Fold each of these.
Amino acid sequence: MTQKSDPKFEALLRLGDNALILGHRVSEWCGHAPVLEEDIALANTALDLLGQTSLWLEYAGEVEGKGRSADDIAFLRDAWDFRNVLLVELPNGDFGQTIMRQYLFDVFNRLNLEAMKTSTDTRIAEIAEKAAKEAAYHVERSEGTVIGLGDGTEESHRRIQDALNILWPYAQELFITDEVDEEMAKAGVIPDPKSLQDAWNAEVRGALAEATLEVPEAHFGHRGSGKDGRMHTEHLGHILTQMQWLQRAYPGQEW
Amino acid sequence: MTQKSDPKFEALLRLGDNALILGHRVSEWCGHAPVLEEDIALANTALDLLGQTSLWLEYAGEVEGKGRSADDIAFLRDAWDFRNVLLVELPNGDFGQTIMRQYLFDVFNRLNLEAMKTSTDTRIAEIAEKAAKEAAYHVERSEGTVIGLGDGTEESHRRIQDALNILWPYAQELFITDEVDEEMAKAGVIPDPKSLQDAWNAEVRGALAEATLEVPEAHFGHRGSGKDGRMHTEHLGHILTQMQWLQRAYPGQEW
Amino acid sequence: EPEERHFQEKVDADIRIEPRDWMPEGYKKTLIRQIGQHAHSEIVGQLPEGNWITRAPTLERKMILLAKVQDEAGHGLYLYCAAETLGISRDEMTEMLLSGKMKYSSIFNYPTLTWADIGAVGWLVDGAAIMNQVPLQRTSYGPYSRAMIRICKEESFHQRQGYDIMMKMAKGSEAQKRMAQDALNRFWYPSLMMFGPSDANSVHSEQSMAWKIKINTNDELRQKFVDQTVPQAEYLGLTIPDETLKWNEEKGGYDFAEPDWDEFFDVLKGAGPVNNDRLEARRKAWDDGAWVREGLLAHAEKKRASKVAAE
Amino acid sequence: EPEERHFQEKVDADIRIEPRDWMPEGYKKTLIRQIGQHAHSEIVGQLPEGNWITRAPTLERKMILLAKVQDEAGHGLYLYCAAETLGISRDEMTEMLLSGKMKYSSIFNYPTLTWADIGAVGWLVDGAAIMNQVPLQRTSYGPYSRAMIRICKEESFHQRQGYDIMMKMAKGSEAQKRMAQDALNRFWYPSLMMFGPSDANSVHSEQSMAWKIKINTNDELRQKFVDQTVPQAEYLGLTIPDETLKWNEEKGGYDFAEPDWDEFFDVLKGAGPVNNDRLEARRKAWDDGAWVREGLLAHAEKKRASKVAAE
């Protein structure tokens, strides 16, 4: 229904948009975290994700070949052209929901980046090399916090369990595989998400068990996905009104 | 510091922007009110306020004489050019804060519109004639609800008292008088806000007493005001990102 | 039994059943489920459209949309009142919605992502709703029938407004056209789902039709909707996202592809994550509003008591 | 007393006072107030800039701003640590901030309304802050002095970034220029207020200077700030909103108008309604975060206990 575009371009958008939108969400915490050390750590995560965004979207623009910069791609598309999964669009909720979302994504991101280090596309391999280190650090932090809150007080346990219940079905979207994924996997550029699912499940379920949390029975019910733009939550549009405000209100300026 | 513009244009912006921004805030409740009847009533208030916005801003555009429509004025100015008081920009808070804000504004609006019915500017007199009826109805509703919540349960009393404490200093801004007000009052176009203050105080303090609420000691501390654009809260800019999104993202289209 | 026979005779003769009349328990139960679900759909249905009120592109569009969502709240009120004549309270029904015991139309588990979606919702979703509702004006239960008559009057107005938005978009700039087509792509199949599964797979249908709680079959209405909508899409210059769509001279209607019923049942059961947002929004409104309802009630009690004391 | 004399001799000889050294109660109290207020200012100061992180116009600007606000949180940490060496905990100081017993710089009760304000905050507010802080690197209390040395290194970097934003705006489109001028108009006088009231009206000043907690007078620093900033504004092509501003050959500095000190005291006392937003934001962060702090603490306790048991 939408015009077919280069699968590598699509795949790079998915990587870039996940980082962009999650980075945006995390940056919303700035100045509002439960404790100063968390404020600093969350800002750090957001910074890493925005750095990854730049690298992915810059390369996406080059692959597309229409002269669009990373900023053009980030700030001048409407909701339908975004390719991130729904998980990263969700509102921050309480700190438990933020950190659980972060953890579920971080593990996926690290596994994905680790595998991309041997990509047949050397540019992707280079970016993955750098980003995988950051992602490993993110997992370390978010996993520790999830375990701490799960195995903390009664209230912290209840809250982080609630967060898991809400987020678990969204996390399943990370492993939906479509033609773009298949083509990229076949060419050895980016792994098929399904190929990461077992490792993800093993690691995540292990940590959640340590956190004394129960994994809910729930799956992603919609057929369309944020990955192909056929589905998003209503939250994405609201993110864009903020994120793109200046570029939209004052088009074509230098900042 | 900003270029002087026609005082009647400025005065009309103040009227229009108060209605526009408050209408926007109230419309945010749509689908989220504590009870269905309130959902309908709030939507009604928002509709009236947006209707008043159209009339004021359309006339403002004519007075300015640069061919700007009400929509151009509403959707294509940045924060600094808005002339509403800070009170109407504030987030909705809980329902108590919303209804208290509404009440404090409604009484001012009704008094102001009543006085404008005899404006020397017949267009303003006509708009005021229509809008005053709506405002009278708004006061009736918001006053009744404030009294009901103040003289309701312990919790409802506490919450509406908290709302009053937060909002009272902001309400004082309604009565700041500057050169624009003085000029408009001298020409018999729009009353000096100060001239409405005694009536407002008598009425509002009466109702708050009936609501068993205590009026706090607090004043508006800043010298700049939303009325002259030298002051706004940070909330205004966020309202604009939403409100103006489509007009900014797709400039010059028909909708 | 004579009561049951008498009841059915009245229904067959198109005489309205009123709250005080005798009625079978199953009739009452089915009506509560159906009217309640319809009422909940109006209430939850405020959310996807309400989502764009603060972003409507002009003052006029903002007012039209706000008025429309306000109408939906009003429809919810009519319908809750109709259901209340059957001996269940609005609060009880609300609790059942929030606990997941009662459903709402699963169309509202699809998000409105662009302004064109507001057009598509009016055109397609209200269009499908009207198709369902018009026959229900002749339903056997009096209060329900009267509520539907009031509702239908307003709904057709809403559909025209939705189509008008689509028209502006489809005849607008390239970007607007693309937005309109994208909205149609996303809302087409969910709209077809609104008529429910094929009659072959639909429970309750036969009895409901005998009771005149249901007037047409799901497939009849769906066909009628497609036949009405295809030429409208053509007029707009938009493409229905169904490559198999074709006029069938013989049946005098279009052949078209079925929606993905697995998704339908998934989403209906709440497996689709979007329904979480909807129920959370309604739960939050209900929970956060408790102190307001209690406060106003307490005040009314006090006033009543002091009035009694003064008499 | 000999202790007091010995203490003052060390101060006079520029020997740092360390936490274990004897110090007068007043010295300690004044330091806690001053360092605490400075720490709180870093924390509250995250808010006006944080307000624009989600709206920064490019990815690079977003990262720079985020890193800057992160630095401020870091400065807050250094300063709380310095204050803690005086026997007060971070939590105690936080509670005092939230209850209004301790202040923060009233500059942060002015809102950031446009992107140019982010430039103005960096250029003017950080500029004024550095002017205050550079001499404090030589303050008599060791931990405070060392914190200031680290902070100053980063602050001057921040000021350059702010000036860079202003430059882009002032040399940009008409709208951007207007935005930049508007930001300067709104932030000029509040920046002048940052040095505190004129020395004639300033309490504590003399003793603090003897203790080398304060190095320069408020008026000295304000003059220095104006003299530095005016040519920068000229270079940007922006106009300082002070018609009385004039070079005074004789004193070798500018004559300039005083800010409205009534507003200063009003805003400082919290009469200005904007400070409500700031304290509410901090209160909400603190209250909403209680369960997180408690949860992580409880987990750490459990781990410690099981480790001890295993030993």
Amino acid sequence: MALFSGENILCFRGERTVFADLSFRIQLGEALVLRGPNGSGKSTLLRLMAGLLKPHDGTITWDGENISDDPEGHNAHLHYVGHADAVKPVLSVHENIVFWANLRANAGPIEAALDAFGIGYLTDVPGRFLSAGQKRRVNLARILASPAELWLLDEPTTALDAEAISDLEREIATHRASGGMVIASTHTEIGLKDARILNLDDFRLTEDAA
Amino acid sequence: MYLYKFGKMIFHKYANPTRFLKLASTIQPWAAAATIGFLLAGLYFALLSSPGDYQQGETVRIMYIHVPAAWMAMFCYTAMAAAAAVGLIWKHPVAELAARATAPIGACFTFLALFTGSLWGKPMWGTWWVWDARLTSVLILFFLYLGYMALSNAFDDPARGSKASSILALVGFVNVPIIKFSVDWWNTLHQPASVIKMDGPAIHASMLIPLILMAFAFKAFYIWVMLMRIRGEINEGKIRALRLRQVHGGPPSRTTILEKTTEGAR
Amino acid sequence: MEQLISYFQMGGHGSFIWTSYGMVFVVLAVLWLQSRRFVRNSQTELDGLAVDRPHCQTSKKNET
Amino acid sequence: MNTFISIVRRDLQLAMRQGMDSVMVVAFFILAVMLFPFGVGPEANILARIAAGVIWVAALLSSMLSLERLFQIDYEDGSLELLALQPCALEITVMAKITAHWLTTGLPLLIATPLLAVFMSLPSDGFWALLFTLAIGTPSLSLIGAIGAALILGSRRGGVLLSLLVLPLYIPVLIFGVSAVDGAISGLPIKAHLLIMAGLLVAALPLCPWAGAGAIKQALET
């Protein structure tokens, strides 16, 4: 029963204290939505979970084992969707996704991933012709192409239209059904049924608490 | 793993900026006094009471500042690399600032070593610059300092700058012996036999005293100015924190948190 | 008097010796002054900032 | 291992499609060397005397040209972040990018060297030594340069800063490369030079990707 959790995480960004004593737990099949105003550290927390950032204090564990002990092992468990879409303008959509899928052990079918987000017709189109929304869909199709338990989505719905958002909701549901976990930070309401909410505002150190 | 724990325990006490400032303000006056004292003694021996060298005549007096400056150039780079290593491995904020503070001082001493070296070379070899192995290595060291300083100021976020330049200081430190070896090797390849060796005859006693005194004077000066610059860097850190809090109205800054945690951890 | 002059000439190489000593003092003095100004400015700016946050006290350090 | 190959293949694909990258590097290399006859004068004996040094310095500068964009493009479009989050170690990714950089710059330089040896009327027995030293030297240049390219990620003026950081570290490779060619021309045994250069390369192979990966991880932390 894979368990991904973090205990009393303290994180600085340069001189600023982003949050302190933050803890979270998530198990297979669950979803966690990060809420909070801009600058409250949603992206920072996702990058901490991915292992790009090291917390100043506190630990993040996967099945009880600290993720910084085996960063490569932890990377194998997760997919990260950040603000930038990593689509090469010169390569076609198919080549972009094949490249990312080959980096992982079990590359799934590319066409199915593209069709899931309704961009099957774009397979041979070079990246430079794509709109922002289409690039985001290619990025999301990338994580479908090779399965991983944990999805870390940093505001996945930016630049997506209503139809793409419903595709995303459907994919998240099937991913959770097949025993995956999703942690997403988002402002727009995406319909994740019985998702737990983590509001980063209550972990911000107030003036007197320090 | 033990060394890591041991290091953390030893440095933890002075990782806290305000406690370091208390230590600094006690050492600083002593460093200032030592600098002035050694400098006066060194000058007295260097200029007044020691005889001219029988072979080089009076120009040997330039050696009394050229050699200590070259020593300081090397010493500062080593100190910078050590501070950078401590800053990177143990995430020790004051060590990172010490490396940033050492760079300009080291660069000044390297420039002085080059300047006095060429002034010493003129009467002896008739040219302002000679591609002697040591002078060339010091010249390359000067560019390593410039690279460090340029990189540490090339980023908007100074923490990023000091991390990147710490890595460069370590990479540079690994390369210094390689550069030294290859320049010496290159020098012997193109060396016209007639050039007198740089340090001339063995230094005899009466010349040693001014040399050592000046070396101590430079080291005391280094400690004095470095402590000053670290204080400035710590202030800069606090200013940025306060400005950020004004902008974000967020919680207290990292330095205050550090002080709280290390206060508690004592 | 001429004994003093001959001292300054230092066997004909006086100019080299005095310029190098002069340069050492100039560079070290400039470095020291710049560092002092760096600390003074940051200290005054810090005090200025801290003034409008009364409860955040900054200790008055007397540095030489 | 297939990560290494797929990254190298992708980078080569990008270089081919983006076109002209290695062509521009070779053009700069030839142009830089061609300037010397105009500057120094066309007499063959003078040119032969400085040929090895000029060709080596020009190769060094032109291999540095495309270093700045080694990680910059991936850093800006988010690929570097994703590459750091792949199950294979970041060092392998950095090594793959360095190999791709060498294939797109170091190799074309080697191909252009014979033409320039003729331009500079390099004595014939120095020819093979020049080719061989460049073959060992340019990978070390790419390796050391990659650390500089990783350090300047996200800095304000990348290009100029990169040359200031990297050129002092290139000096040992330059010294042994040129002295090997000069040694060959004057008939001296050059085994020692080549061994030292090989030593530099073997030392750079593990250390530079490790330092580069460290620099990239720190660059991604902001």
Amino acid sequence: MAALPFELAPAIAALPFVSFLIALLVGAFAPRLLPKGGAIPGILATAGSLVLSVWAAVAVWNHPDGMYHDSITWVAGVGDAAFDLQFGILLDPLSTMMLVIVSLVAVLVHVFSLGYMNDEGETGLPRYYAGLGLFTASMLSFVFASNLLMAFMFFELVGLCSWLLIGFWFREPGPPSAAKKAFLVTRFGDYFFLVGVVGVFATFGTTAFVGSESFPILADQVLAGEGASVTTFLGLDPQAWFSVLGLLILGGVIGKSAQFPLHTWLPDAMEGPTPVSALIHAATMVAAGVYLVARIYGFYALLPQVMALIALVGGFTALFAATMGVVKREIKQVLAYSTISQYGYMMLGLGAGGYVAATFHLMTHAFFKALLFLGAGSVIIAMHHNENMWDMGGLKEKMPVTYYAFLSGSLALAGIVPFSGFWSKDEVLYEALVHGLESPILLAAYAMGLLAVFFTGFYTFRMVFLTFHGKPRTDTARDPHAVGWNVKVPLVVLGTLAAVAGLVNMVPVAEVTGIHLEFLHDWLDAGPEALTAHHYADLIPYASGEIGSPLLTVLLSAGVSLGLALSGAGAAWLLYDVPEPIRHTDRLGRVKTVLFNNYYQDEFQVWLANGVTLPLARVADKFDQGVIDGVVNGVSSVSLFSGGRIKRIQTGVVSNYAFLLTMGLVVLLVFIGVTGGWF
Amino acid sequence: MAYQLPGWAALAPTLTFVAAALVLFLIDSIDPDSENRALLAGTATVGSLVAAGFAAWFLIAGTGEEPFTLYADSLVVDSMSLFFAFVFASVTAMVVVASYDYMRDHSYQGEYYALVMLAATGMTLMPAANSLAVVFISLELASLPSYALVAILKKNRGSVEAGLKYFLIGALSSSILAYGISLVYGVSGTLLLPEIASAVEIEGLTGVLGIGVLMILGGFAFKTASVPFHFWAPEAYEGAPAPISAFLSSASKAAGFAVAFRVFTVAFPVEAYVATIDWVLAVQILAVVTMTLGNFAAATQDTVKRMLAYSSVGHAGYALIALASLTGTGSDQFVLGGGMAHLLVYGFMNTGAFLFVALAEYWSVGRTFEDYNGLAKQAPFACAAMTLFMFNLAGLPVGAGFMSKYFLFAGAVGAGFWWLTAVGAINSALSLYYYSRVVKAMWIEEPTQEFAIESKPVGLYAAIAAAAVVTVLLLPGFGPVWAFAQDAAAALV
Amino acid sequence: MTNQDRGSLLPGLAAVALFGVLAVVFVRASFGDPAGGFAGSEGVTASIGYAMFNIAHPDAIPSEGFLVAFLLIAVVLDAALDGAVLLARRDEGGEITTALRSDAAETDTTEERVATDGGTVDADSDDTQEGHN
Amino acid sequence: MVPIEYYLLLSAAVFCIGVFGILTRKNALLFLMSVELLLNAANINLVAFSRFHGNLTGQTFSLFTLALAAAEVAIGIGIILVLYRNFADVDVTKATTMRW
């Protein structure tokens, strides 16, 4: 008999599902009975999930095993090649932490939606809240899934919900096509994932995450030369075959977490309502990919090549997306690229062996990016749904609550001490550095991640200054729409978290002072043996290096990244914190004018901004818009085009069919005959 | 104590269909101008439900665990033939229920239902055939009524053209099958499947036997609408009355696979043939080409029914994976079971999708994607069911379509044919594009026309609802399906 | 009737190719010695009769049983007849006229609309709603 | 006794003549006649091999093939009739309202 909070664990996902059913059924048959278009049931359900999640987390902490695992067999295996399919719940420190994050952000987004959707007189609210409820239920189920197949199914369902919600404003031209693109691009990755799941089943006969029969453990035993052998394919040795499996699963991760080159859907997904962006495209669904890697970290840690690839993809995505954030006009576009970039950091952390660091960044990012999106939503309400930053300015005085919350999130995003993002990003970079000193690939990834810090600081504060500082540039900005309590409360809660959440794992401070401050590390180390942080640390295939002494390395790493973040922010301050900021992106040909007229105080920083940063950002942006997007669109148009050619053989004339049929038969006869040696 | 049923009683599903057909003939001959649609459709429905009931009963009671051979070994009843009998009977039941509304103003009601029953008789015998003679004749029994059914809208050019093409390609293909059978007989001297496996002397006659085997494969490829024997399929499915399209693309296709599974595993065991007559390789080629062509052509269609027709060709490619992944080792049972489970689930989801098209035709909605715009506002329930079918056909985990495809792919990977799975997965990714077009049209687009939906036909709604409910329920209930499919596969390998 | 019955001969090459493959294989095949006539004292016709009804007769020429096939053929012919009559019958205004009438160039005088909607409507029909093809 | 290979070649020739007819003729009735050739090619094989193997299985089966050919023609004629009524022709290449 398990403890009560564990018994109630299914309700964590079931409650939002009930709210989905309520919104759907009552909304369809008796819309008048539905309070606030379904918001109230949604808030109650997600709040219930939050309470239960916290309770489960406490229970996990107090439990002797540090976890709870239960499953039911869904399809029993039959015959020789038997395997069972199971549905199960796995509660351990990692999953309960994620449950708390998801349900917390979900509650706040539901509250915020009251202001963003209800007060703005949107129609179709039951559909909106039904989508949110189904999404939350699927995401929570994904988080506590106990095996890869179950995880895959809910992984697909969150993608489906994302599709429904991005396309919420289906009457406009943009959202439906954005929804379709998001769905298809992530699905493209998911099919690799599906093949990977199938491969894991075929190889290990199980996809369980935990237990002595789980596939990471089996893989470990096989590679260590002990325990049962497994089936491998393609004539590969186990190490190589496991790497293939790891890469296939990584396909799903890259699609869902919007990593290069499957990131193109995320900026388009900003067509959806802003609370949806905050919940799905910043804090939770996009995190699913990274979470999945963390979930089966015991498997990836065995595969050094795959780890290195993850780190490289992460580092590159972090830099690439950050440079593109520099040139965007719309506030949500900046945030979208920033999200891609930050998930790049998480991948970098995971690939570099920083399990705790990446999880830490996952947590802090969920808070500060949800905050930034909701803050942007608040600005958008104020601006009557105009998202162009060049039409804003001077909103600081008009909406102080939003401003200070947004500032807190921006400081966290830019990585300014002591806001949460600093601690987690610093830890990611530190892990990449110490392992990179012994591995050139990781060092390259680290370098890209480090460079991205500068761009992050730059675009973040460019956004802040353009939006809130200076003089209002339009009439709307001079007289913004007021926002209500339901917008402010979530902002305040998340603003506080963005400021302080980093304090749970202050590694540099701990190193310097010797005080034990690594609470998150302890938390993630509390689970069952095979899922703990130090178990993963043992498996990591990297050696650690240091510069001088450990203390010096820590301080150097923190100092460099902080310095870069500050200089990026400073460059933005110089260029954009003026009453009438100029579109520097449009003036590249007239660098001299700009130099002489406005910014002679600090030629170097301006040169850095205008001569290096912006051109680089523009090139990256062009590359993304032209090449990557072009390839994605190209693949689909090539498919359609070749489909259009292929179908032409169906001429409608039955004699031609008979001819093709006969020719097909003859070709088949000859081919099989030649291979079989009949002639 | 227990009363032992005679051996022929194991053929109860088949006999039920024959009896239903005869009763329909009787009704029709007593009153040739009968307008009593309820009586005719009711008889056919009762017949197919009783047949499904018999099949389910026998399956659960374990009748087929020890294979019965009947009538000088020319028929065999085992868990595999019963499994497929259940598939055909369920599809037939849905089709006849839906036809009650679809054929409402049509003459030839009696003949229509009688022909459906006769075709179903042929289908239930196909997986039970243990002799190439019975294979050929039961295949013809399934085909001939289908030709007439496709062309039954005699004043509709599309229907007639579809019937013509189906018939001509069918006649050519069945002749190829007959010629193949004659060559196999020539080499082995027998028509009984197990004896072919033991009697064949490969020495010196490899080529003759090989041509025979591949021609038989061609005959089955026609029935399953596999490339290059598929050319009839897009037109026949598009032109036929939509319930008949459902019947052909679900039941008839499954029958083709059932008979192919039995003939190729029993008469031409992989181990003995792989070196000289590598029919597995041939099936692999067919599978890849069929998947790719079906999906690519479906992606560019303008009309929903034709899109479904091509998608049905694509699905034949997936099911061919079951045959293409045979190795003669322990993995065969798994992958064959995967194929059978997929055909069962496909029977429900694909029938449902075509019946939705039938509903749209009943309402005269029009046939292109644009014509479906905004339909969900008028008919939310039916559109929700259609959405479910579309997502299931694409393999999203909202119903059993995901599970069965997953097991099929898992079986192929387990047998070492990971590249077949990869091709299948890529094609599935593409298929989502065109399936989601339907969903988008129904739910997201604004209506471009006024729908004249006066009534919600009970029969069509009932059949669609049944298909939707079963498709969803088989997701949690996939365990028993899988167990039965594995039993059925175990009967062959 | 058709003015030009003969289509292009080019597709016929496929048949020639098929014959080539078949002939090569058949000529190279080496069949063993034939069984040398039928064993059994009953005549061929009588033996076929026994085979059709699965009657085990000691003197019959050996054959497999075809009882199932025989019964099935009965059903097949039944179905074929039913289908053929159904298709060939012409009904005008509810009156069923002679089947298989030879004046096939008739124009359809009935105004009765086709109840259901199978394939593509022909181009000159008055059905304006469905112009897509 | 005539070697079995001769019968095989004969049947192959008949079969391919049938296929040739199907591929090059447009008249639906000729199409049907060609199908008859195809089935009878199979019958030649069946009867010849029946003699070769010394059992009657092939001969008996060839009778069933004949019956099936009759059934197929019955349906075929029906379809050709409705084809003629709709397209005013028995040219199989005329019915092309559905394609691609």
